[in-house]
Structure prediction request, 162 residues.
Amino acid sequence: MAKQIMRREARDNVYLHQDFHGALSAGIEYLHENYGEDAVRRYLWQFARSFYAPLTDALKARGLTALEDHFRRVYGVEGGAGRFDLSEDELRIEVDACPAVAHMRRQGYPVARLFRETTDTVNRAICDGTPFAAELVAYDEETGRSVQRFYRRRQESDEGAS
Prediction:
């Protein structure tokens, strides 16, 4: 029998990394227990500023549609459901259940006490240095259900006006 060679690239495979979230959760809990809450937030901030730099650039160039496109794609790939409400100055995302939290709960993995920071801190870091800011309006620790709000920052000249 002749030798057969199969050539595959990462893009040929279905994107799936659910167990990554369990490992991330364990890492967050380790940092929290050993170095405190600020260490968790610093780690996630530094990670997000680096990993999501292209998204931050897209946010600067394209505005909130870049974030909407990103989150629609991510929730679609991970099997999450979200409702998106976009205007020129605000993007509001309502997520019924975080796919990562749902997966960890199904597998019996512990969910880090600060897992919400993977939404809150990461979203704020993505917006850093752009005309936009992020706010985690609501978050359910049990399901990861959330309301995320991205909005145009007020211009300095607007802040003195009332």
